[in-house]
Specification:
Structural class: alpha/beta
Mean pLDDT: 87
Distance between the termini: 45 Å
Largest sheet: 5 strands, mixed
Order of helices and strands: HHHEEHEHEEEEHEEEEHEHEEEH
Number of helices: 9
Length: 306
């Protein structure tokens, strides 16, 4: 499957005659694409592309590989479509990784719907944190969260599932005790509940319309769990950056008040990651259902608890 995926990368470059445009079409970074092509050339033992800052040409071997790869990919796509015509007959087993916070609030009900509609498919849901490793954890697909519109440089294929906004919230008790900030700069005087990745964040990127502001933040509480951050804010520990469906959730953040209401944080984007672009039908359908139902689930939560 890896060779087939690398063929797709090469065919995209050969068709578009441009690494940047091909990377954009495949939704990967240019550096990842360049590395994949170089690895393919090393594996084949031939130079496929002669390129410089001003020219792009396929070698004779490149032209031959392009024509054969194009035919193989077309056949693979037709075969996949023929086999995948009837999703009602999906069967087999898959392992899906996802952050526990995302599962608890949004994705678990979506996965449950998928299972009800496809009873012959069994699923293992594996909790993950940070950048997933599909090979190490033997995952067929992994859902990842990022504040960027695209994932950081990765060899995985990213299928965008959806996004949601984030705002700042605190409890009434905390604001009564510490005061209400009126500008992003005033956040420096508050206990801010920060996201913990490899280290705790020190700035919040905020926007209000076209205005952009970076606010320095600090505080005694940091967590890699957004649910835990909502609960900490509910316990009057400070100001947290949260999605609305968590800030108002009756279990996690009920009663929180929005702070600096004209400002929002960087939105959260959710991607489904796979190692290959040509996927078994059961994985294709899981990603399709996640894309179709993600925004519905977020809107449902906000309407119920908002």
């Amino acid at each position: 499957m890896r060779l087939l995926a690398d063929m797709e990368v090469f065919v995209a470059v050969a068709r578009l005659r441009h690494f940047g445009r091909a990377a954009a079409a495949l939704e990967i970074t240019a550096s990842t694409l360049s590395r994949r092509v170089a690895a393919l050339e090393l594996e084949l033992g031939v130079v496929l592309i002669r390129r410089s800052t001003r020219s792009f040409n396929l070698t004779e071997s490149g032209e031959q590989f392009f024509e054969r790869s194009r035919r193989i990919l077309d056949d693979a796509i037709r075969t996949r479509e023929e086999i995948s015509v009837n999703f009602a007959k999906l069967s087999g087993h898959l392992r899906a990784g996802m952050p526990s916070d995302l599962a608890a609030t949004i994705l678990a009900p979506v996965i449950a719907k998928y299972c009800r509609e496809n009873p012959a498919v069994s699923i293992d849901l594996i909790g993950s944190q940070g950048q997933p490793d599909l090979s190490r954890d033997r995952l067929d697909v992994a859902f990842a969260v990022t504040h960027q519109n695209k994932l950081a440089d990765s060899s995985y294929l990213a299928h965008r599932v959806g996004s949601f906004a984030r705002m700042m919230y605190a409890s009434r008790t905390y604001l009564k005790r510490k005061g209400v900030p009126n500008t992003p700069q005033e956040l420096q005087a508050h206990a801010c509940i920060r996201y913990l990745d490899h280290s705790a964040e020190t700035n919040w990127e905020l926007h209000s319309g076209r205005k952009r502001q970076r606010a320095a933040v600090n505080g005694p509480w940091a967590s890699s769990s957004v649910i835990a951050s909502a609960q900490a804010a509910r316990e009057h520990l400070g100001i947290a950056m949260l999605p609305q469906h968590l800030a108002s959730h009756p279990t996690f953040g009920a009663g929180l008040i929005r702070v600096l209401p004209v400002w929002e944080g960087t939105p959260v984007n959710v991607f489904a990651l796979t190692a290959d672009r040509v996927l078994p039908a059961r994985i294709q359908e899981l990603i399709r259902v996640a894309k179709a139902d993600f925004a519905k689930r977020v809107a449902q939560l906000e309407s119920v608890v908002g």
